[in-house]
Amino acid sequence: MEISLLGTEILLATLGFLALVTGLLPGRAKSITGSMSLAGLLLILVYTIAHFGEEASLFQGIYLVDNFAAYFKMLFLTATLLVSLGAGRYLERFENKKSEFYSLMVFATLGMVIMASAGDFITLYVGLELMTVSFYILTAFLLRDGLSTEAGLKYLVLGAASSAILLFGISLVMAYTGTTVIGATAARLMTEPAVVAGIVLLAAGFAFKISVIPFHMWTPDIYQGAPTPVTNYLSVASKAAAFAAMVRVFMVAVDAAPGLTLSWNLILAILAALTIIVGNLIALVQEDIKRLLAYSSIAQAGYILAGLAAANAYGLKGVLFYALLYVFCNTGAFIIATAVEVDSGSTAIEAFRGLSKRSPALAAIMTICLLSLAGIPPLAGFVGKFYLFAGAIQQGYLWLALIGLIMSMVSVYYYLNVSRVMYIEKAGKQEPVKGSGAFRLALWVCALAAIFLGCYPAPLSNLAQQAIQLFL
Amino acid sequence: MLTDYATIGVFFLLTVSFPIAAMALSWIFRPKPKAAPDDEKYTTYECGVDTRGKTWIRFRVNYFLFALVFLAFDVETVFLYPWAVKFQKLGFFAFAEMIVFIAILVVALWYAWKEGALEWH
What we know:
The complex is a heterodimer of chains A (472) and B (121). Helices cover 74% and strands 1% of the residues of chain A. Chain A is mainly α and 472 residues long. Chain A has a two-stranded antiparallel ribbon with strand order 1-2. In chain A, strand 1 and strand 2 form a beta hairpin. Chain B contains 4 helices and no strands. In chain B, helix 3 runs antiparallel to helix 4. Chain B is an all-alpha fold. Chain B has 2 domains: 41 residues; 54 residues.
């Protein structure tokens, strides 16, 4: 076995430990943790891109190295980099715990990478727990902030419950197929009530992680309470990781099982429709930017789930394409929300008042990111939704595409409401919002990616096409 | 087919009714004294030494930290033991693997030490 096949994982584990160790160094040596982590993540991202296209099945199919996993690894690393760069002055709130922050971010990324590559249920579960446990700590990272601690505890309790549901599903599937290797279960799955129950429980476990209605209750509270960069990371990367695992489980095991007659597509389509409708409607009345983005992220999960429900070339390509552009657009919006929160000390949408006068670039990028999330052409969100809904229509879910289109129009209202506050209402303060160079770099990457992917989606679309080839 | 699903339904009903039945039975069979319970009945333990002060107290978090550190090395032993038994056969690669494994745990111990988890303030 070539060690280089596991390069991303080994390097990430090493980086996580290095970040922890440098935090223990005395005096000023501590301060290298941040730049070292960023440089390390960038190197690992380059390594992963350079090794795109490798195919291997390690340890009797327990761990898979393929284009699909590689695509998601790039996505996670990009998200980690952007979030860490964009956190900027918010990090000062972590006082002397900055190295732990970087270390836990890297370990959470490692968990996601394992989830995307897992070829068997137990490995998948281990990756999921590594990610989730890191997130429990990150959510409660502001020890003196009541909201943050409360969010951490809630996430711990609800996350444990959802893990139990997922495990129960895995155990039922394993009891009937006699194997935990996802690829090997396909041939042995049959239409047996207990197997059906197991698959439903599996779907419910994943649905919790991607906050699909009716498993979304935790999302707003925890997104609001967690430190804003962590909320950002939670909303883009942990969802993408759960989608990666879910796509693999459903396409490799459930969809390909000859002995199983279960209209899982229809179940997911109904869940997606519910999620899109309810998420967008509740977002309409939010007055806190973090809660607004939480409900918006619920709705976005619904759009992506529509692509998985379609389960054809267009739909799956849409899932991968949308997951990545969602990283750029949502991170852009969150980075600005973080800067405004640091500046004003409030997460209310009113804190954005007159941002166009104070920092015109920030207001413009916020508008671009939000419009892209709403799916307005020529921004990236439009192309992504086009793939997702085209897939749904091809599969005969015209109603789902219609619901998606109508609710996208509804969502324009609350996204533009933020722009209205930024451009029309008067500011109390006049001086521009401060931000470091790293913060500006992350912002410009997000904004340019949102525009570039909208105008010229072909390269990423081809990459996504290569990544899903193994499921078609 | 439907009867198969009924099996799951019956299991579900059983799981729901079991805790209810357990609590109901103990309620039915427990002694029900006519008179109101006296002070003795309200103490935390009816027999043994009386508690002093409030029983609803906080425990030091250090117990938990010690337990965590102990657990790390407890698990280490579980992995070390079979490795040590088969050491001759496994060769150098397994030795290097074990060094990496122990190095990871040592970092954890170092961190716990530095953060003061081993001190009893």
